[in-house]
Automatic annotation (TrEMBL), chains A, B:
<comment type="similarity">
    <text>Belongs to the SAICAR synthetase family.</text>
</comment>
<dbReference type="InterPro" id="IPR050089">
    <property type="entry name" value="SAICAR_synthetase"/>
</dbReference>
<dbReference type="Pfam" id="PF01259">
    <property type="entry name" value="SAICAR_synt"/>
</dbReference>
<dbReference type="InterPro" id="IPR033934">
    <property type="entry name" value="SAICAR_synt_PurC"/>
</dbReference>
<keyword id="KW-0547">Nucleotide-binding</keyword>
<keyword id="KW-0067">ATP-binding</keyword>
<comment type="pathway">
    <text>Purine metabolism; IMP biosynthesis via de novo pathway; 5-amino-1-(5-phospho-D-ribosyl)imidazole-4-carboxamide from 5-amino-1-(5-phospho-D-ribosyl)imidazole-4-carboxylate: step 1/2.</text>
</comment>
<dbReference type="InterPro" id="IPR001636">
    <property type="entry name" value="SAICAR_synth"/>
</dbReference>
<keyword id="KW-0436">Ligase</keyword>
<dbReference type="InterPro" id="IPR028923">
    <property type="entry name" value="SAICAR_synt/ADE2_N"/>
</dbReference>
<dbReference type="InterPro" id="IPR018236">
    <property type="entry name" value="SAICAR_synthetase_CS"/>
</dbReference>
<keyword id="KW-0658">Purine biosynthesis</keyword>
<dbReference type="GO" id="GO:0004639">
    <property type="term" value="F:phosphoribosylaminoimidazolesuccinocarboxamide synthase activity"/>
</dbReference>
<protein>
    <recommendedName>
        <fullName>Phosphoribosylaminoimidazole-succinocarboxamide synthase</fullName>
        <ecNumber>6.3.2.6</ecNumber>
    </recommendedName>
</protein>
<feature type="domain" description="SAICAR synthetase/ADE2 N-terminal">
    <location>
        <begin position="5"/>
        <end position="232"/>
    </location>
</feature>
Length: 237, 237
């Protein structure tokens, strides 16, 4: 299935798919990183959880009509995706305040954003993924104004779907990060991953954090939390 | 002329005007601060330069039809202005890259922005005046989406006028910061100051920095530079 290793990121290895030039194999690693790579650890089994959870999310989004890179799961840690030219803009959607925005703007944790807040960050590790505005995005990424608008609309649609999806397993979606890429037709489609590494998920009953914050804030056993999410998902989808 | 001291900022004291409730006396101090107040110094005479230069700028802008708080100069260090409810958003217009944007986004100094770039910062010293996007501005400041748009349009118009203005004294306007406020009628008008403290001005011949960067980067005698600007202005207006 796998051809050449094209890129190794913080969470995944990216391989050329052997038979199709326009497809990739994403291979999820066991590494956890936070605070722009300053905090690091390895959790054996983590790659499996992110791969299987992200696959379930993308399958759900496909059912809802969201155009994405997802083709199919290959095994516990790998999935086949459409190769895209990643737009170097991380799109964050926030329903409830948490993480960087609380410190950056002095907004209290759990403040509700109605409508949900969309933030853009320039995907550039050397610069620490800085917040950018729309004009910066047009300057730094190869996107047109209408495309940027449609990316934001897509992000808000994905938010609607993900809220319903996670609601079904008793989780509140506080915020999440998306990446978009351009396929060979020039269309912009949802790419990368959607997992507890890239979402903030709070248990609806206990309020407990069930995402990478468990690692960021040393709140407990990350694998146990990711396993709980996968189990809840397997019970409903 | 001056009534009660209402507020003391980093660069100015703000007094109630004695006879008119809806007017203020802005009294320019000799203090220079940079890097969010981390670097400080006093330059006796600086207040005069900022007051007189800002007054000339606002008089020019008034001629061009820009609605602002400026009423008139009172003396060397003081001017009478219309009291406004300051919108806590600093509006930065950039024609050429300099300062924070070069570090924040890795953009080389002197990179030309066509069209000029507009950035918003949340005016909040405790948070270090962070960059914000439009959605943050709507959340944090009491402004409507149409008002935010018109603030940006005004900022770009002011940019056109200021480019011509400074061009006439052989200076390139690299970037500048504006503040807007709401008057008692609810209209949003240009407020605060426009001076070498709030603009980046480069001599067209030598390229020399003729603004607060002289203080920020210890490039020479700040008062001499501000005096040169005032003299050039007095020769033309
Ligand atoms: N469909 C895709 N096509 C091309 N690249 C992709 C696709 N999906 C995700 N990527 C990229 O794969 C890389 C590896 O992922 P990850 O380990 O999360 O990297 P990073 O450390 O850069 O975030 C990232 O640069 C991500 O943008
Ligand atoms: N027309 C106005 N009405 C009310 N406040 C004003 C007006 N123009 C400027 N200000 C405010 O005056 C204060 C004093 O200026 P400054 O010393 O530059 O303060 P700061 O340190 O807050 O930047 C600032 O908060 C500025 O926003
Ligand atoms: Mg990543
Ligand atoms: Mg000020």
């Amino acid at each position: 299935m796998k051809g050449e290793l094209l890129y190794e990121g913080k969470a995944k290895q990216v391989f050329q798919a052997e038979d199709k030039l326009d497809q990739l194999v994403l291979s999820y690693k066991n590494d956890a990183t936070a605070f722009n790579g300053e905090k690091k650890a390895v959790f054996s089994g983590k790659g499996k959880y992110n791969n299987l959870i992200s696959a379930k999310v993308f399958a759900y989004l496909r059912d809802k009509g969201v155009a994405s890179h997802f083709v199919r799961s290959l095994n516990d840690t790998e999935q086949l995706v459409v190769k895209t030219d990643i737009i170097p803009v991380e799109v964050v959607v926030r329903n409830l305040a948490a993480g960087s925005i609380t410190r950056r703007l002095g907004i209290e944790e759990k403040t509700v954003f109605t409508p949900p807040l969309v933030e853009l960050f320039y995907k550039k590790d050397e610069l620490g993924d800085p917040l950018i505005n729309d004009e910066h995005a047009l300057l730094l990424a190869d996107v047109q104004p209408e495309e940027l608008e449609s990316i934001k609309v897509m992000a808000l649609e994905v938010n609607q779907h993900l809220q319903t999806f996670f609601e079904s397993i008793n989780l509140t979606l506080a915020d999440f990060k998306l990446e978009f890429g351009r396929n060979t037709d020039g269309d912009i489609i949802l790419s990368d991953e959607v997992s507890p590494d890239t979402c903030r998920l709070w248990d609806k009953d206990s309020g407990a954090k069930m995402d990478k914050d468990v690692f960021r804030e040393d709140l407990g056993d990350l694998l146990q939390v990711y396993d709980a999410i996968l189990q809840r998902l397997e019970a409903v989808v």
